[in-house]
Amino acid sequence: MSVDLHRVPGHVAVVTDGSGGTALGDTGLGDTGLGDTALVDVVDGALEIGLRWLTIDAVPSTRWGAPLADVCALAAECEQVVLARRDEWRARGVRIRAIGRRDARLPHRLERVITETEAMTASNHGMTLTLAVDHDGRAELAAAMSAIAEEVRSGTRRPSTIDEDVVAAHLDAPDLPDPDLVIRTGGDTRTSSFLVWQSAYSEFVFTDTHWAEFRRADLFAAVAEFQRRERRFGAVDPT
Known about the structure:
The chain is α/β, with parallel strands linked by helices. The chain has helices at about 40-50, 70-90, 110-120, 135-155, 165-170, 215-225, and strands at about 10-15, 55-60, 95-100, 130-135, 180-185, 205. Strand 3 (about 95-100), helix 3 and strand 4 (about 130-135) form a beta-alpha-beta unit.
């Protein structure tokens, strides 16, 4: 392993490319088994290096433009992986939760599993695994702006009090730290509206490896690349 365990980023987020017909990786519900999925192996790898926050674009919002049958299949796969692994992850101290829309277009069974899993693992204090399910960063910001505007309209907030902290407090998960590292799989070099607000000063690593084949070794390689960089958070290089 090439990772310096003393300098592991606090929060790593992964924007998946959705290869193989699923954003979970090679779910292998027939031959390879759930143990071979990208999601499972990356979570295990994150725990191995002591990562505190991991966010995965598990069911991308862009998938809702696909045929309904494909969306339902993806939601069902997400549901099965979470059901199969949540007891193990809970025993290992993982807190599991989701960000994204929780409206009528989210399949009821997946919504129920997510809600149950969040409640089951809420008291855990190890790694926080955040599953982005129908998450769109621009939609998240629009919802935050709408909520803040309603506070101003009702007289509970003055416009002069609106700052970055106020906006952050109205996002889906206000306690979610900004990702130090964002990994984009599959050779794509766009963020696809993923964690738009939170990733303003993140370091990005782009890999040609498709999410279906992405494993802990790929996570370790991205973290090692992150550790070779000097973060300036937008500041000018003093040299």
